[in-house]
Each structure stands twice: as C-alpha cells, then as structure tokens.
Amino acid sequence: IQLTQSPSLLSASVGDRVTLSCKGSQNINNYLAWYQQKLGEAPKLLIYNTNSLQTGIPSRFSGSGSGTDYTLTISSLQPEDVATYFCYQYNNGWTFGGGTKLELK
Amino acid sequence: QVQLKESGPGLVQPSETLSLTCTVSGFSLTSYSVSWVRQPSGKGPEWMGRMWYDGDTAYNSALKSRLSISRDTSKNQVFLKMNSLQTDDTGTYYCTRDRTEGPDYWGQGVMVTVSS
Questions:
Q1: Could you tell me which of B28, B32, B9 has the C-alpha nearest to residue B80?
Q2: Residue B68 pLDDT greater than 90, yes or no
Q3: Cα distance between residue A82 and residue A92, in whole Å
C-alpha cells in the first residue's frame, strides 16, 4: 500500500486549526498511525489505530478517517508543533507516507 | 526505561556490505518485535524489515534480496546486514520497538553514507 500525504508543506499561525491528509492506494482498514519528527530527532508516535492518542500526547492532536482517507488535526497550533508529520499503515505490509512539513507563518 | 541504540560504520564503500547493531534495554526481544527503518535526508521513512518476537523475520520486498536481520537475545541485540550498497542507500538508519500498532520507541539513528 502506498501512502500519499498532502500538502507537502503547510504554513499556519499559532492558534490555527490545522488539518493534514494521508491517502492510501488501497483500503487501510483504520490501521493507520501518525508520527511527528522534529529536526534532527527520531519520529515520535502521536496517534495509532486512526484515532487513539498515544500516552503523553497533548489532546490538541486528533485523528480521523476510514477506508483510504485519513486526517491528522491539530486543534490549536503551538510553536512546538513545528515538525514534519508522517502517516504509517500496518494493514497490508508496513509503509510510511512522504510527509507534511508544518511551519509557522 | 525503554532504549534502543544503533551502532555501525558511518561510511561504506559502494558495492560493500552494511552491518549495523541495535542494542536494546528496558524490554525483552522475546516479548517485542524490532524493526529497521531508514530515512534518506529530507524524505519519508522506509520500513526495511522486522525481527519478530518469536524469532521469525519479515522483509520489505524491495530489499529482500540484499537484506538479512538476525538477533542475539542473550546480548539484547538485533543485527542488520545489507549487501551491494549503492549511493541511494545513504541515509539515517533506525531500529524501532514495534507494537501491533506500529513502532512506539525509536533509537537515535545512525547516519550511513555510501561513498568511495
């Protein structure tokens, strides 16, 4: 399964509601996770099983979706959320998306 | 606490073999699976392969002919060997602890450059 993330670059202001998209080439059956990667660091698990928040992750992060289309939402963007975000599917094999880079406007 | 640490050479000659070691602590290799994931600079990660908790292995079909993953449970280590390296194998290589829902802990990564 191939994952396509959009947009590749997103500029937003502090406090904005931000939505990132991940589309699969086949049905993912909700076996989708989201990772945050800050510059020079390893990726960090945010969301798994489409909408389950990993322990310790702020509640402003949420996930949704079904079938082939999934979304990561940040309800109120904070400066520390500047990072690249990757989706990851584990329904059929294991693949990552190409990422969305989130920057402050 | 859960920790993973990759080690290995930072520079590999084209056509040579890459050997990396992942040393883990805070969990048992017979209870959790460990994957290798690589990431070219500025690009998305690529899942390479997995050592299952029961000793079985799984490989990315695109790498399967060049890749081997093994382990030594007595030393809490997982090994990666990949042959016939080319310049597009350059990137950061991570080992990860896997749950069913995906990697939950990552090592710091090791940068590997393929160059003569």
A1: B9
A2: yes
A3: 30
